[in-house]
């Protein structure tokens, strides 16, 4: 039953990714319905095994994040709204001559319909997180079973992207089934660490001197080939930040994996300082050489002209960030509501007068503008708690597979956190689904009942 749930959830992910990343509302609504039915079947109908209790800090921060999003739809007295969101009441007063009678109760969000849609999407992400965490915690599904849907989707998108780039005689670029190359690279950078570290984990299982079984070597070679295919597709996407984020994920994953090589729960071997830092230095040098020698001529040309992107220039993007500060200042506590950035930003917009700015091109600023300081801090605390616990799980892992899957989760989340500084991957449905999936796998380490450790 659990394997069937993994397959069903993976099918939803594949459908969302292959339907232009789920940006079409009709396709995404089908995905939301499917995720809801899978969750009902798994948690209620099938009555799955008891799930480990979540760490209290992570549980509270995730709950606060969801509550802040849901609270935006609840009508509140105007006086209370004026205290926590003065810009909302000012907007209400400005619309009074058109709307007629001034309402005594008003929601915090300025776009209730859009917020309701985004709240459903957020609920689907939370449900995928809980499903992935529960399925990853079960023994019979195995450590890497939850990774296979990500690898299949990532490899298929990478192969399609490489084919697209080859059609134009090397002058084109890869987008897969995505409309935007940066979001396409965002998907691939999330999957890349799992393919690379899965191969390493296969080779490290029960490793004995002077022994190299053919079976594990072939499986590891296949995974290395998938990782290479994904990396090549990222290069062909010509996404500058996607390439940098991919290198950052490889650096984080490689340095942690080499740094923990030989580490055991019951003891830590004392090493000189140069032996402790040598693995990180080696990985850093390898990544630096990759940055120099891996980019294609087209990608190098894009790096040489940092002032331009497909849609907006770097100066325009910086101006959008600057203008967003005024929006955040007027809606400090609870934001303008999920999905309300485009509508609210019009008042503060001083850049690109002939174009509509629908996203802040920075996930941190957009979440801060739409959810306010409370929702933003709650989400940030939850993510960093997941990373902290996953790092601890990697250090004190009781098996090779558990260690490397934890390292892959940290590397993958590092990539998307870095990419989110200049893009809005969190608002791309398929990528958001993958992120929730990976956080769910990492969430295995968010157990409230921690096993005793041997000092």
Structure report:
The protein has 455 residues and is mostly helical. 67% of the residues lie in helices and 1% in strands. The protein has 18 helices and 2 strands. It has helices at residues 2-18, 25-45, 56-71, 78-84, 86-94, 96-99, 112-137, 148-167, 181-204, 214-237, 240-259, 273-293, 297-304, 314-330, 341-345, 363-395, 400-419, 429-442; strands at 76-77, 105-106. Strands 1-2 form a two-stranded antiparallel sheet. Helix 7 (112-137) packs parallel to helix 18 (429-442), helix 9 (181-204) runs antiparallel to helix 10 (214-237) and helix 9 packs parallel to helix 18. It starts with a helix and ends in a 13-residue tail after the last helix. The model is unreliable at 450-455 (pLDDT under 50).
